[in-house]
Structures are given as structure tokens and as C-alpha cells.
Amino acid sequence: MLKQNSHDFQKSDLPKNRREVFFDCVKLRFLSFLGLGAVIAIFMLPLIAITFLKDSFDANIYIQASGGAMTEEQASAAAQSGNFIFNAAAVACYALLAVGLAGVIRVIRQIIWAEGVFFRQDFFDGVRLNGGQYVVLAFFSGLIALLLSVAAPVDRTTAVLLAAVRFSAVLVFAPITLFCAAQTAVYKNGLIKTVKNSAVLYLKSLPTTLPFVVVFCLPYLITLIPVLIVKYVALIVFCLLVAPLMLTAWLLYACYIFDKFINKENFPELMDKGILGK
Amino acid sequence: MANVSLKGVYKYYDKNPKPAVSDFNLEIQDGEFIVFVGPSGCGKSTTLRMVAGLEEISEGEIAIEGKVVNDIEPKDRDIAMVFQNYALYPHMTVYDNIAFSLKMKGLETPVLDEQGNPIFDKKGRPVVKKRRYTKQEIDEKVQEAARTLEITEYLKRKPKALSGGQRQRVAIGRAIVRKPKVFLMDEPLSNLDAKLRNQMRAEIIELRKKVQTTFIYVTHDQVEAMTLGDRIVIMKEGVIQQIGTPTEVFNSPANLFVACFIGAPQMNLFKAKLVKTEKGYAAMLDGVKLELSAAVNEKLKAQNAEEREIILGVRPEHINLEKSPSDKTLTAKVDISEMMGSELHVHAEFEHAIKIKDDNKKDDESEKDQKKMIVRTPLLGLPETIAESIRTGGEIYFTFSPEVMHLFDFETGNSLT
Amino acid sequence: MPTITVKDLTVTFIENKTQTTLALNGLDAEFLSEKINCVIGASGSGKTTLLKCVAGLCNYDGEIAFDGASVDRLAPKDRGVALVSQEFALYPHMTVFDNIAFPLKVAGCPRAEIIGRVNEIADILDLKYCLTRKPRHLSGGQQQRVALARALVKRPSVCLFDEPMSNLDAQMRFNERRFLRDSIKKYGCTAIYVTHDIPEATALADKLFVLDNGKVAVCGAPQDVFTSDNPAMAALRGEIK
What we know:
The complex is a heterotrimer. Chain A is mostly helical.
């Protein structure tokens, strides 16, 4: 016999804020999140594959250099060109990942908005409606990563400048991209307007948005793990389990920011969407 | 047959300061059928399990046939337990399931001294001589139990081939074959569908007549409790609310919880005022003065009761519908009516009707129930004017006699009488 | 929604090589269109078998017609019939929304229409706040309403109920009867409701049928049937007392 609750389920039992919505969704739809993780893992495979190839290439250079088959200059040049090829290829991988994320974020939106979730249909709707903007964003992200990877400091000043640029890329470009991704899932705006809005939203919410930026550095930190087997297992686990939760938390937070600065005056029907207990 | 005695029994779990069972006191007579009833989590199963020895007693003592059993293992207490999920061995036939408890128990005969008196060990336990039952003895006992429960034709089958009701009978058979001093039954009918539950309830009544043993039966269903029990123990949050026969708890509920728990549909509760009159006391409800019975008046006088707000309880079947309003009638507006067999159940709105907060319900659900009352009236002989008013959602005028009114304290919920 | 006519319905169950049981024995009945038709009777009188025949779930002799058109050759899925039973048969791993939407998804309904229909029926049956929950979070009464919603969301012409409220307590049953009446009225389907609970049958029925030994013993307005002298009804009345 089906398990029953002793009393009627009511509105007062529903989540009353976005934090409760997060835990509620994860608890109720754990299998859906696992499915989303699997999709992310599939779309991440090309990126993981080229990362693996780069690691193999770097390991090979190290062995040759240690064995004396290559001089230090030759090894350094080989590593740099390998780096360039990797970052160039990564641009295409980011674009592919963006296609997957467009669908995934659409499904997550349906879940947190407590609207009917049609996994397959929503995924393909997301790809169809938002894939374009996501690919453009990913392309530019990849391009910036490529440029930063090939830039080499010639002296201390340029080294400091390069470090500052890299730091800004993380602190400025990354959160704006994240806001763009969230906006694209919610509103129907052109890319330029989306980017402009994202910049403004970021400035207005800087203190609360920064922790999310730090958390989103996690995938990059995983790539720094020196033990290869641990690194790749961690990447897969990250895709399957952590990535969907991070995206959900981000989307919920973004909706909170949108409510505060956009929806109150412009889209009242979107205010507190998904917080059914309010 | 045995008498079972529970004195000052408490049960605490781990670090929880609130006891799961609190100050449980009960004397059960030989051959009595006692029912523990209450909502989920009230402590009824915990108490039963303490009698069985499956839970440790935190405080107090439990005695069977005058002997304290606190430290005695369940297998040595000479009790038999029937659970909600039957707990039959799926790989054994029905015969083997019933016989298993006999094979495990063996036959114990007390060792006697030269004068024929039983010998006790240092712990006060009787010294017994144990031997296995013979195959013939086991067969006789199993066949007898099977005949009692009418499951002889299933003895060679395995539990999975049986229906829920048949499995429950096997579980009971496994218990009665041991001829225990006390039968303990923990919601044995909960897993069965409604029709089968009614059927099995009748079978348990029949079984009780045949075996003449003390029964302690746990259920959350008040209809089951009222049908089966010689006496009912109503519990809430680990505390006994009332102990009495079905008639006693129905006619004289000790507090609001008992009044609302027993009886379906639930007792109507009204917010009224206790006032002093020349004759003694009366209840004021919606501007109408309701006379109280002589017995109630005496009790209130003895307490020197003050004028105050009270809760007046009247069961739906005790409300009389009147053809027209008068200074003695109360008025309610019909919401919906249902013909239930030979009766009409009229659901109406009455300004002073209240519902007590049910801890199992949320606030907004309890809100919806306020100002609602129910009247049960026979269809036969219902005057056309009243029937018409009910059909069209109009007003009904009602009264009730002093004998059927129950008075409760507004703050504590305890019965004033 | 159709008037259901049953003519000379006979169902034989073969127990073993030598034993057969007549579950229905030349049963004739006319079920009112867009009303609640309650069927009561002793155990073994053929109530559930009758439902199965109307649904097309068992073989029978005789004729069943919806608005005069025979449905005997139609498969269950083509009869436009929905069935609600006491086990509810909800998918425990799916949300309430997905449970209700399931038959529409299977039928290939467009997404927007599914969402619209599910929200509409959830509103009628006061399940709006339960759509994101799993069945285990709901009370018995709410679970029964989800089963009802799942049946009605397809807008069936006929809705069959096999003792759906047996496992609910008295207060829940009262609430659920209200929802059932309101939703049947709103969707206008022809309902056949089988129960062993006679007071419940008299409370719900627009037309009451008493089955006895595979035939209709008496039928008509609930009050007339309940007070009739028919032996089958008298025996059932005796059971209530």
C-alpha cells in the first residue's frame, strides 16, 4: 500500500523562500538532478578528452626533457604550443558544452519554478531557444581564455598587468557571463541588452554575488589536481553530482536578484515564481 | 489466564526529556480484552512492547500473574504477540510456521520439592524442567489451533499463496498454539482492506470467545476499539486520557480529546457560557438558555463552579430538528446534506461551533473546520418542512435535551462533570 | 456523455476443470448519463466484474452499449473509460503533476495543453499546492483525489470507481465525496461507483443498483431502493445494523 501522510499536505508545508526551494527541489527530484548531471558529463566529454590529451602531451614533454631528449628551451616551446592548441580546441568544446548547458538550465528553470517538467522536451526547448546566445557567450569566454593563455609577460610590469587582467577576467567577466546565462533562461532579450543588464546587476549585487564566483572556480581548481586519476574521477563526480546543484543554486540566486532589480516594476508576474509557500 | 498490572510505567528514549509513555497505571483482569487506542505516536505500541519485553521499561513495573517481569526475557514471559505485518517465515509452510513457536518453546514443568511446592532460584524465578514437545504433541496442538481458526485446509501451503486475511489468521494461530497467558496484538488488521478488516474483526470476537485468554490489543481505529474492547485505554502523547468501557467513554468522556476521538461523526463543540440561575446552573448558547440535567447541576454545585466560558459538546445523533424557530431553538444554516442509509447527515454552519486544534492538522486546515456542525437525523418521519429547508440550503432549528450535553472547561478541556 | 445500457450480460469464470462460477448472470441495467450510478451488493454479487466488463477488461456474453452504440468489439483503450480503484495505483517516484499528466503524455498531448489541463483539474480538486510533491507526502484523501484527477484529466466519457474510498477515514470520505460530486458534475462524465459501504452509496448516488447473484435485484432513486422490500436490499440493510 502507498505510504500516506497523517494530514493533508497544504500550502504552509511548501518552501517559503529560495533556500528552502533549493533543498526541496534537490530532495524531491534527486533523480532528475542525476539525469542533468549525466547530460552535463556527456557534453563535457570533449573538454575532458582534450584536457586528458594535454596532460598526456605535457607528461611526454617532461619525460623527454628529464631524459635529455629535449632541451629546456625546446620543452618550454613545446609546452607553449601545446597550451595554445589546447586552448584553441577548448573554444569549440566550450561551445559544445554551452549547447548542453542551454538545455540543462532550461530544465532547472522548470524545476525551480514548479512548472511541469518534461525533461526531454524542456531540454530541447532550451537548446533551441537559448543555445545561440549560450554558444556566443561560450565562444567569447573561450577566446579570452585563449588570449590569456598565450600572453607571456616580458618583464615585471607586464607580469603584474597580466595577473591583473586574469584576475579581472575571473572577477568581472565570469559573473557577467553567469548573469547572462541566467537572464537568457528567463527573459527574451538580445545579447547586447543581456550583457548590459548583467553588468549593471553585478555591480548592484557585488557583495552577495562574489561568493558564487568563488564557488564557480571549483572546476578550474579540480584541473590543478596533480594526481591524474584523482583529477579525472573528480571531474566526472563534479559533472554528475555537483554541477547541477551549483547551476540550480546560481539560478535561484539570479532569480532573487532579478526580483529585486527587474521584476518588481517590470514583470510582477515573475516575482517569487516557484516559492509556492509564500 | 492472567492478570496484568502496570504501575507507574515510564518510557524515555535516549536524550529526549519528554517521555514516550508517562505514568501508565492499569490493572487488567483475567480474560479481559483491553484495547489501547489513540492517534499515531501516542505511545500505545510502546506500552504493548514493554509488556512483551521488546522494550526496556525506564521506570515503574509490569507484573504478569503477580510476578514482576521487568527483567524477564520476552520468551520467558509466556506471552504471544501478533504483529501488523504477520511476520511469517516465507520459506515454511503454514503448518511449520505454527509449529515453530512450539518447537522453540518446549514444554516447561516446574520442579517441585518434597512437599510439592515449586522451587525458586536466587532471582526469584521458578526452577523449571524443560523438554521438547513430541511430534505427536506438536501435531495435536497445530491441528487444534488450525481448527479454531478454520485454516486446516491451508496447512500445507506457503504464506505467499495466502490472502492477507488468511496470513493474519496464521499469525494468530502461531500465537494461540502456545497457549500464552496474555495475547498481545499490535494493529493486526491495519494492513487489510476495509471489507476484510470488518470480517477479521468479527473473527477476533469469535476467537476471543473460544480461547478465553487475556488480550491486549492496540489500534488507532476508534471503531475497532469500541467494537472489540471490554475496556478501552485512550492515549495521547504518552499519557492515558481515560480508561473505561466503550459505553463509559462514549457517554462520559473525560476530556475534549476523548469526546472528539470517540464517535463518528465527531462530537459537535460549541462555545457557550456557564451561568448561575435560581435552580442552579444553565448554559447560555447564542442567547438561548439551556437547562442542565439534575445530576450535572449537583456536580457543579458541589464544585461551587464559577460562571465562565465553557465548551458544550453534543453528539450529532443527539440533536433534534424542530419545524419552526422558538425562544428555545438554535439556528444554523445548511451547507450540505447527505443521505447515509436510513439517516440524513446535515452539515451546517453555526456561529458558535468550534473545532479543537488537532495536533495532526495544520492551522489553515483547522481554520476551515471552524463554525461547522453536523446533525444526524433519521429520514423516516422527517417533516417535509425540515426536509425542504435542508434540500434548499436554508436554515435549520435545533434543540437538544439536558442529558446529552457534555460540559468541558474552556482552558483545560477537562470534563466539568 | 453516454447513457450506458447493459443487456443480458453473462460472465463465467472457470475455476478448474470441473468447476465454473457465474459471476454475472444475464444482467440488464441502464446507467444514467452524466450522473453517479452506485452499485452495491454482497461479496460475490458481481459488482467488480460488472465494472471490468464495462471497461473491457474481461470477456463477456451479452451487450454493452454507450448511447445505443455497441462497444463490445472495442478494446479498453478505445472505449473512453477511466478506472479509479482503492489502491490508487499512483507512481510513487513521480510527482503529483507527473502522475496526473501521465495519461496525457502517453496519448501524445502537446505540452501546453497538458499543463493547462493538469492545472485546471488540480484547481477543482484542491491539489494546486501538491503538484510538486510525491504521493507519499499526501494524505489518503489527497492521494485519492490525485487518482481521480488522473482519471478525469483525459476527459473520459465514462468513469468507473471500484471502492476508491475504502481506505479513508470517515471525515476524509466526507470531503472526498464532495470533490467527487463536484468534479463529475463539472466534467459531465457518466460515473459507475461500486462500493460495499451502503450509507456512502446512498449519499452519492443519483441512481442506486443492488446486485444479487450476478443480476440487478432492484434499482432506482437511492431512497426508494434503500427502503424497498427487496430481499437483497433487506439483507444489506441488516448488515448495517
